[in-house]
Amino acid sequence: MENVKTDGLQKVLTEGRFISAITKTIGEKLRENKKCGSCAYAAACQGGCPALSMISSGGSMLSSDEYKCAFFFGGWYEKFCNVMGDWKNLNPIN
Ligand code: SF4
Asked: Ligand 1 test: best mutation among 68, 78, 93, most atoms within 8 Å of CB?
C-alpha cells in the first residue's frame, strides 16, 4: 500500500491500489464478485456498501456486503414493502 510520507500525496491520489480500489465501478464489482454478479437482488443492492463490505469481509471492498445479504436474503425487503402501504418502488426487483 502506498504511503503518503514516502510516495507523496499526488502519487497516492492518482495511482496505486488505493485509488484503484475506491474508483471501482458497480459493474466491475458485479463482474469480479461472483456472489453479487449472480444475485437476484443485484439490481437493487448493487453489491452493497463498499465500507460495509470491507468490515464484513475483513478488508475487501469487492466482497459482498453481508449486512445487505442479510437484509435481502432474510426477506426484509419484502417485509419493508409490505409495511410501506402505498409506497411504490420505482425500481422493482421482480
Ligand atoms: S444481496 Fe449480497 S450477494 Fe446480493 S448483490 Fe447485495 S451484497 Fe451482493
From this structure: 68
The residue whose CA has the least distance to atom 3 of ligand 1 is 36
Range of the domain at 29: 4-83
Question: Would you state the cell numbers that stand for residue 58, as one nine-digit string?
Answer: 475483513
- Give pLDDT tens digits for 72-94: 999 998 898 889 988 887 777 76
Q: What is the pTM of this model?
A: 0.79
Q: How far is the CA of 65 from the centre of ligand 1 (A)?
A: 6
What total number of domains does the chain contain?
1
